Amino acid sequence: MSLLPDATSPDPEERVDPVEERVVLMDAEAVRLALARMAREVVERAEGTEGLVLLGIRRRGVELAERLREFIQEGEGVRVPFGILDITLYRDDLQEIGLRPVVGESELPLEGVDGRTVVLVDDVLYTGRTVRAALNELMDWGRPARILLCVLVDREGRELPIQADIVGRSVGVLPRERVEVLVPEEDGRLAVEVATRGGTA
Amino acid sequence: MTTGTPGGAGSPERAGSPERAGSPERVNTGFDRSPTVPSRAVASLGKDLVGLEDLTAEQITAILDTAEPFKEISERRIKKVPVLRGKTIVNLFLEPSTRTRISFEFAEKRLSADTVNIAASGSSVQKGETLVDTARNLEAMRIDMVVVRHWASGAARFLADRIASNVINAGDGAHEHPTQALLDLLTLRDHLGSIAGKRVCVVGDILHSRVARSNIWGLLKLGAEVGVCAPRTLLPPGIESFGVEVFRRVEEAIEWADALNVLRLQLERMQGGYVPSLREYNRFYGVTRARLEAAPRDVLILHPGPMNRGVEIDSDVADGPHSVILQQVTNGVAVRMAVLYLLAGGVPEGAEAAKGG
User: Fold this and answer.
1) Measuring CA to CA, which residue among A146, A93, A149 is closest to residue A117?
2) Residues on chain B touching A90 (C-beta within 8 angstroms)
């Protein structure tokens, strides 16, 4: 049998590529400041916390949504409902890739999504395919009154007509560059870094 | 603050296009941040699921882990995800089955597959068509998977080796019934925390039971201690060579076990002369409340159904606090969804290519 990386080994995304160059785009403080502002923007766009639901997209979106929730609680004194979306089963490439990605559990907030303002939270908006999958899954859960997209980093490379409503930072990067959001829970530090394979040459 | 998107026209080149990533095997489909590291993937099962004897502990664990998130889908208001959209699955049940067939059908429909059910009666099988001819005719209509239940041991393997579609064994003769054992394992794991080191005893007609065989393989591979308990006439000769403990008395099995998997006593075994009478079977091998109350610890009760209440299991045990029989049925749908999901992508070459990425 073939055991693909990760069924047992640690997350391959954490492997360090020796010929990779990394540049810090946002340090921990910059990320915190951006999230604090985004939390205020979320409340502003949703016109308060009434009916507001935060949904983190697995995996890094979950940690970011939890932080946004804390900032909203600090500012408004309200702990808004929270859920997790795992979009694996809604990927449009399952036929193509010929392998079975690990499926994570989605957790619908107890309050549901019907008639609510749902804020989808993800780390990087890139091709837009993850967000497309998340929207489809969300529609299968119910009928939100409104959906807002909130991402920490908005980078170029969209393959679908999707745009974010609340953005931490927009960056222009080359296609071969990779924007990575690092969170303490998964990566040991809070930062946004740009990695280039094979150096800048 | 900027809320707009940067130059929507963007770059048509994908970051992960093979030339750029330097890994010709890999196709970036827009989901992976990294062009070099693929998404986390599950152990591949290959083309078919014929039996647990063929699987490794890693593969069995991968199926159980994959079943976990699928449980939640059946609790949703809209119980459907688009994973198998456009796939055609034939449920070829050449032996009567209610629970397994319906469970597979729910699993298939909740994954958005199109399904066709074929039973022996009323089909060309009745007119003498062979299994392979039936399957090849189905393949000529462009199907993707066959779920097969057959009275002959080995029928699933026979079919799997001869057709290109994925084949899932839904019970072949006295050989194996892998998805039943997988749902038993999932239910045991839910309640006991883990399988390794736990003592599970299969009680009943081991000789004729594919459920017993699949359970023994699965439990042993995951590191459980396995017992069997049955009248001598219903034990296969040489059963000890499987590496299982043999109990002649059900009281001893109950005293030893963390969980009992109680098998149905098929009524036709009476005519076969394997047991003198149902009453006598119940008196010596029935799982009763009185016997369980004498046990040193709580014993989890599983039963693959359909039950003969008052024969192999008493009603107050089947409906008692330690019975997980209905949860087995619920888990059956999740486990079958997991198997369908894993097999649908299970082209080993594809998995190998992704591994190289």
Assistant:
1) A146
2) 81-82
